[in-house]
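Database export, one record per block. Field names are fixed; values are copied verbatim from the stored entry.
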Amino acid sequence: MRVLLVGGGQLGKDVLKQLLKNKKIQVILSDLRERPPVVEEGLLKKVDLVGNVTPLNIKAVIKKYRPDLIVMAASSVDTAMDKTPSGDVLNLQIQKEVAGISSVPVIIVR
């Protein structure tokens, strides 16, 4: 199973620790940072997609990486929306829109 994990911060780290318990799961990481905490701490070797997963690129991301499941575990800090007024609300709405457009299952972790 291929899982696209969006967000390599604290939320992503918590999800990743659970996913790594199953050796059959291949994790594909997306994060704005080249070395987010999950890479810095050695849980994963690299970020596969440096950038945000958005309604504008979700179809191309699915085509390129072929995930079976997408886990959106990016906080407003991870998506650089933490300095935007109502950044948490905007981040959640973007994640919900991605989930609505996606052709594969999406789980949003808050």
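Remark 1: The radius of gyration is 13 Å.
Remark 2: The chain has a mean pLDDT of 93.
End of record.
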